[in-house]
Design a protein that fits this description.
The chain has about 350 residues and is mainly beta. The protein has 2 helices and 29 strands.
């Protein structure tokens, strides 16, 4: 039997530029036929809203944080959407002072994170309407054209983000982009996971064991901006090369994690997937493979400590109650020539893939 794709309306919004033109938002749900593994994505921000996973006992659980209404994703309620499930671009992570030099000229991006640029700016890809196309075989492609000057970025980019699943309980995320002039491109996904279920964030990340396959990481300053160093994890709290209890790590250092890990790609050809991370709870594990050079491990440090952020099914989400594992280029690469390059030229194709496998 083929994989099943369904669509449901998710709401309507308008923009300040065209307040009389309603924009409908649709939710796309992909389901496999063996055990009801499914994902749902909305075309606003190409955001992953639901991820229903069976564990070893056959119990189905939604393991990602999100919202039930479009208004919450738009951020017009009493709290702000912390990029739940969103596609991030034109560049992911932070750019120091929002500026860099390209072709001998200084480029100034918008400053939406204090004096720095974060996740594409005030209205990055996470706040844009994508055009969705259903593809046979359990795939949906979301496309967006980012025009020159948007959030300060030079030249235009046409990007497509394709979500697909298979009967092996895997999510395949494929990114494709082309530009009409030189510009940085670095896309990722900002899903918050809790493998015991999105309703359990009050218990922090209890029972979550993590392994990150990285011998080095990129340190940050007090504003979480990359210093430019590439440092061995050996002997530090960043040595996660063997399984570690996330709750224990956070208890020992309440500052948690919001850091880029340099994946072990030595000797691996460009474009080939490597095992980046494994997170396990009793009866379920998530393995992440990617062709990207980095992975941002984030432990939900900026989620509220009290019942302020209400998500799906009227559930409140709490600090350190979920983790993000964002496959990515290294942060602030535009300002560090010794980092993997993120600048793209016309005629070249930006193409990357990450696979999220749920196993027993």
């Amino acid at each position: 039997m083929p994989l099943v794709t369904t669509t449901t309306p998710f709401g309507i919004y308008t923009t300040p530029a065209n307040p009389t033109v309603p924009i409908p938002v649709t939710k796309y749900t992909l389901t496999n036929t063996i055990n009801s593994f499914s994902i749902s994505i909305i075309d606003y921000g190409a955001a992953l809203t639901n991820l229903i996973v069976p564990d070893a006992l056959g119990q189905l659980t939604d393991v990602v944080l999100g919202f039930d209404t479009l208004e919450d994703y738009l951020g017009i309620t009493s709290f702000e959407n912390p990029y739940f499930g969103a596609s991030i671009g034109r560049t992911s992570n932070r750019v120091r002072a929002g500026r860099f030099i390209m072709d001998g000229q200084q480029v100034q991006l918008s400053l939406n994170d204090g004096q720095n640029h974060l996740h594409g700016g005030f209205a990055g890809f996470d706040k844009r309407q994508f055009k969705a196309s259903i593809i046979s075989g359990g795939k949906v492609a979301f496309s967006y054209i980012s025009t020159g000057g948007e959030e300060g970025y030079p030249n235009s980019v046409m990007a497509t983000i394709t979500y697909s699943i298979n009967e092996e309980n895997e999510i395949i995320l494929e990114y494709l982009a082309m530009c009409d002039g030189p510009t940085p491109i670095s896309l990722t996904n900002h899903t918050y996971f809790n493998l015991t279920g999105h309703k359990t964030t009050a218990s922090k990340l209890e029972s979550h064991m993590i392994t990150l396959y990285a011998n080095e990481y990129t340190p940050v300053d007090e504003n979480l901006i990359i210093t430019g160093d590439v440092t061995p994890v050996q002997g530090t709290k960043f040595d996660l090369r063997t399984p570690k209890d996330i709750n224990e790590l956070i208890t020992n250092d309440p500052s948690g994690y919001d850091h880029n890990f340099c994946l072990n790609r030595e000797g691996v050809p460009d474009g080939e997937l490597v095992l980046a991370a494994r997170v396990s709870v009793p009866n379920l594990s998530l393995e992440i493979r990617t062709d990207q050079p980095g992975l941002q491990f984030y432990t939900g440090n900026f989620l509220p400590e009290t019942a302020l952020l209400r998500g799906k099914e009227s559930t409140y989400y709490y600090k350190n109650g979920a983790f993000c594992a964002e496959t990515q280029a290294w942060p602030d690469a535009v300002n560090h020539n010794h980092f993997p390059n993120v600048l793209r030229s016309p005629g070249t194709v930006y193409k990357t893939i990450s696979v999220y496998s749920f196993i027993y």
